[in-house]
Amino acid sequence: MTSAPPLPDTMKAVLLTGHGGLDKLVYSDVPTPQAAPDEVVIRVGACGLNNTDINTRTAWYSKVVDQAIGDGGADGFSDVNDTDGSWGSGAIQFPVIQGADVVGRIVAVGTDVTPDRIGERVIIDPWLLGHGDWQNTQNSGYFGSECNGGFAEYTKVRSANALHITSNFTDAELATFPCAYTTAENLVNRTAPRPGETIVITGASGGVGSAAIQLCRLRGCRVIAVASLSKADLLRELGADIVIDRNTDDLEMALRDAVGCPVDIALDVVGAPMFMALVNTLRQGGRYSTSGCIAGPMANFDLRQLIYKDLQLTGATICPPGTMHRVVGMIETGALKPLLAETFELKELARAQKVFMQKQHVGNIVVTP
């Protein structure tokens, strides 16, 4: 491994020691990572939080859990199955350093990586896709889940996933992009929106939802955001044409009144409470796509809506190769705006997660070493 100057033997990191509550996050000294032949070591400038961190810590992905994420976010769930606690229904190897949204500089490289990369400012593509069938979960890992991530002073990743970036944004601002914007770009692409179409976005003030607003506007679509009305002005600045109160008693009627016609596309990260209202407002041949269900995974579904309206329903998790490269390109051209809600020190990660789970913020929360 080539490095300049030498790296310290140990570093500070937050270890996830098992499934459970916030007490499972332990700030500790651990060995500094060393690069394998095709890897680089990055001094972390900032690392963003996302729902995957909470879902994995609590084992919310486990099929025995049927509650909303927030019901067990702080203390964990009482009944989980450790064997399917990850997004891909596999087991997590503890302890693990989470954190997918890393921005920093390369400080060391493996033997197969050119030393010219040392000093590069990079942003990590969190999807660790293998060759061949990238949608096979056995061939698709996630940074900070199937391997150690960025809630640390240093991290390592294969060189191909450390993308050079040129931007005037701060590290903390850039750390709002990787998970949220790759997820949103994939979510949007699954419905193939066309200019002029009307798109409803739930959870619109969160990281994925606010990213989806911008991405849909870039495609020339009319955007209806579902969120707290206290956040309406900021969402309109991002490109939302209409903001509907997420606490409305009848979301279906509110959508029909606001839009004035059936909806072309629904992009959903909220889940059960809003699912049927969204489906009911879709036009003939409409499209629904989801990348999350933070308010609950179990939804009643009238199959007649799917059958007789010729609907397309899709899930959106594993991002196709090249997704993060497109996001970087949009960042560098100024097409995308970071939404940095709040910054915490790394040692405050448990407090940062607590604030994150309260869902009072707009955009993303970030920690810095």
Can you tell me about this structure?
This protein folds into 2 domains: 2-177 and 338-368, Medium-chain alcohol dehydrogenases, catalytic domain (Quinone Oxidoreductase, Chain A, domain 1), CATH 3.90.180.10; 180-315, NAD(P)-binding Rossmann-like Domain (Rossmann fold), CATH 3.40.50. Strand 11, helix 4 (207-218) and strand 12 form a beta-alpha-beta unit. Helices cover 24% and strands 26% of the residues. Strands 1, 4, 5, 6, 9, 10, 17 and 18 form an 8-stranded mixed beta sheet that branches. The model has no long low-confidence stretch (mean pLDDT 94). It has helices at residues 51-58, 171-174, 178-189, 207-218, 232-238, 251-259, 272-281, 303-308, 323-332, 349-358; strands at 2-3, 10-16, 25-31, 39-48, 101-109, 121-124, 127-129, 140-142, 154-158, 162-164, 198-201, 222-227, 242-245, 263-268, 282-290, 312-315, 340-345, 364-368. By secondary structure, it is α/β, with parallel strands linked by helices.
